[in-house]
Sequence to fold (393 residues):
Amino acid sequence: MIPLISQIASVECRGNRRNQGVVVCCSPGRLVIFIVANDVKSFQFEELQEMLGGLDESSYRVGQIVDWLYKRRIESFENMTNLPHALRAQLAKLFIFDRLEIVRVLGSRDTTRKFLFRLADGNLIESVLIPASPALYGEKSDRRTICVSTQVGCAYGCKFCASGLEGFSRNLRANEIIDQIIAIERVSGEKIDNVVFMGMGEPLANFENVMRAIRIINAPWGLGIGARHITLSTSGVAPRIKKLADEPLQVRLAVSLHGATDEVRNQIMPINRKYNIETLLSACDYYAKLKKQRLTFEYILIAGVNDSDEQAHLLSRHARQLSARVNLIPYNTVEGLGWSRPSRNRQGKFLSILGAHKITATLRREKGHDIDAACGQLRLQTSRNERQQVATS
Fold:
């Protein structure tokens, strides 16, 4: 969480100074201490109002600032021409603009596009622009969906996923999450109206930054994307599912189940050893009842691991218990991992069993299979290539 403002009244001083993220703004009669984040896009509207109040600026200036940030997409305070020069200079001392550098863009035959970004500290993350698909929520749509990352790497070690193969580096800040959307809209020229937190990392392990980003993405003064067009995916961090349920925003929840028994989940998802299926389903039940909305079970079909008839029947039982939808996803092959996707007949049989149990289920159309669109693959390939180039130079 970003600290806000501490105020100390009746201190005579003049001038401003900044040191290691602490900004001291002085005016006759008072001292205001700001502790700031790096990027202005990590702050909520009310926080900016409080900070500008500490600078003796009118509150309407915040509306002007966020209009430049999220509507006009300006990346410099100097270009916010309806702000006084003195305020622009002050804001430039308080904040910086982090920028995502586009390293690679891979375009798919089905119009899926994967973006590899380099962060200010040199780390790499991925985002994916996905064409409209009825498999996302089991309903037809013409939405443009972005799949965003929330961490650099992942510490949860799902055995079928490329995101964790290089280990975990750090959480993304709120602005680094928001900037993925802004950058892709700028490059693609398309308006994003559907956001899924299904990229690199476990969103619920970066809870505070993710929720801060979601509030800005959802806010009318921010990106203005409706809460029900925002889906947060988790591998099964049960306590944080309950914490998410207690949040006021009506975001959608997708649970990466990928196995209908503890035996299968233990094999491919280490988190199940801490939060087993019974614990996970209990947290999901809490979420569904409190939010009064249906959640989705994401289920990657892996040949010979979780694609049996038995798993399909048990998955149907879990889905019926929670009135959940099921989104079946044929496995995207990852170099260096020995898993493979089931045959089309096997995929169809699994789906038909769910249908026989009256479960709302979809089999995701293949999106981006030809560009290695599964989480972490492009980052992994690029990181290894860069290290190899350094070693041979």
Q: What stands out?
A: The first strand starts at residue 5 and ends at 9. DSSP finds eleven helices and 16 strands in the chain. The CA atoms of residues 194 and 229 lie 5 Å apart. The mean pLDDT is 85.
